[in-house]
Design a protein that fits this description.
- This protein is of the alpha/beta class and 368 residues long.
- It folds into 2 domains: 207 residues, 3-Layer(aba) Sandwich (Rossmann fold); 136 residues, Rossmann fold, CATH 3.40.50.2300.
- Helix content is 36%, strand content 20%.
- Helix 4 links the parallel strand 4 and strand 5.
- The two termini are 28 Å apart.
- The relative contact order is 0.17.
Length: 368
Amino acid sequence: MKWGKKSLMTLAAAALFVTAACSNNGGGAEPANNDGGAVKSNAILATLGEGNDNLKGKKIALIMQFNEGAFSAQYVAGVKEQVESLGGTLQVQAAGNNLADMASKLDAAVNGGFDGILTDHGTAEALEAGVKKAVEKGIPVVAFDANLQVPGVTVLQQSDEAMSKTLLEQMKADIGGKGNIVKVWVAGFAPMERRQISYKAFMDANPDIKEIAHFGTAEKPALDTQNQMEAILKQYPNKGDISAVWASWDEFAKGATRAIEQAGRTEIKVYGIDMSDEDLQMIQKENSPWVASIAVDPKDIGRVQARYLYQKLHGDETEAKVVLDAVLVKREALPKDKQINTTELGQYVEGWGKSEQGIADWMGRTDK
C-alpha cells in the first residue's frame, strides 16, 4: 500500500502498497467464523521466559506512514497481540501518508519516554534523523519496509523479488507460457522497486508473453485501477486479447478484478501480491478472475517485528536485515463449500499464520 522523486503526496500515498487500515489504537475485531462464533487463531506468539521480568511493562511506539485498509489493520493487530503477550503496551501513531508528519511523530516518540520504537514504511530520508537520535539515546528500533541503513537498526522486508518471481512463474504455467498481459505497478516504494526487478527479468526471459499495457498510481489505487482496466478492456474487447493481469499490490488486484467481473471477462486471470481478509473473499468468489496471490500474513509481519524489538530490549545482537517468508495462495487450494478468512487460511495453505521467525531461545511460546 504505499514516491521517490515525485511529489511528497505521491510518495506518501504510494507507500500504501502494503495496503490497509487499522484503528488508531491498533485494535481490531476478531474475525467471526461461518457459524457466527469467534475464530480461534492458530498464531504462534512469543512469551517472556523465566528470569525476564525486567522486560514486563515496556512501552512500545509504532510509527506508521499510513493506516488505511485491511492489510494494515491486520498488521497492527499482530504487533499488538505480540507486544501484549510479551507483557508490554503499544501506542500507534499514523501519519496519514504525510512523510513530514511521520518524521515529527518519530521525533516525539524518541522524546516521549518509550522503551522501544517500531516503524512501518516511510523513507530513509524521512526517518533517518529520528532513528539515529533514538539509537543514540539507547532506544532500540526495528523498521518494516524502509530502506534504512542505520547501524544497530533491524529492518524487516518481505522477500519481494522472490515473491514476484514465484507469482510470475505461476502465471506463466496457468496461461501456457504465452499471451498478452497487463502490468499494474507504481514506482518509488522500496518493495515495488524490488518486485519490478523480478518482473523485468521474467519478461526478458519469456518473449512469448507480451505486455500490452501498464499503469498504476498510489492515489486511490483500487478505484483508479478499476477505471483504467475498464478502458483497456474496451481497447481489447475480444476473448483471448488479454490472458492475465499481474498486479504488484493487492489494491491493484482488487481494482482489476472488479473491472474484469463487471465486463464479464472472467477468462482473464488476475495475480496479486499481499493478502487481507477482503482479498481472500474476492478470490473465493465463484468464477473470480483473481486466481492467486503471494503474501506474508500481515499479522505475522507485526508479530515478527515485535519479537525482534524485544530481542534488542533483552540485549541480543540482531541481524541488520530480516527477510520474511512468503506463501503462495491459490484459489484451487481453498474450500468450495464455505468462505474463510485469513485467520483460518493456515488450515488450507501450509505455512500461513504460523511463523516462528524472531522467537529467541530465551522466549517462551504459545499457540493461541
